[in-house]
Amino acid sequence: MRNKPTFKMNMPEINVYILIIGLASTALLFYNIYVGCLFFFIFLYIVSHNWRVTNIRRKEWTKYIQNLSLDIDETTKKAIMNLPIPLCILEFDGSISWYNNKFHEMTESSELLGVNIDDIVKNLNLRKVLNENKEMYTEIKYKDKEYTIVYNVIKNDKEKNAKYLMMLYWLDKTEYLKLERSYNDEKNSLMLIQVDGYDDVLKSAPEEKRPLINVEIEKILTALEINSKGALKRTSKDKFFLVMNRKELKKLESEKFSILDKVREIDHGNTLPVTISMGIGVDGESINENIKLASGALDLALGRGGDQAVIKTKDKFVFYGGKSKAVEKTTKVKSRLIGHALREVILESEQVYIMGHKYPDMDAMGSAVGIYDICKSCNRQANIVLDSSNESIEEFVKRLKASEYYKNLFIDHEDAIKNCTRNTLVIVVDTHRPNYTECQELLGISDKIVVIDHHRRGVEFINDTVLLFHEIYVSSTCEMVTELVQYMENNVKINKLTAEGLLAGISLDTKNFAFKTGVRTFEAASYLKKVGADTIEVKKLFNSDIKDFITKAEIIQSTKIINDNICLAYTETEADNINIVIAQAADELLNIKEVEASFVLGRKDNKVFISARSLGKINVHVLMEKLGGGGHIDIAGAQLKDVSIETAYSMVKDIIYECLKEEE
Question: Which compartments is it annotated to reside in (predicted)?
Answer without folding.
Answer: Cell membrane
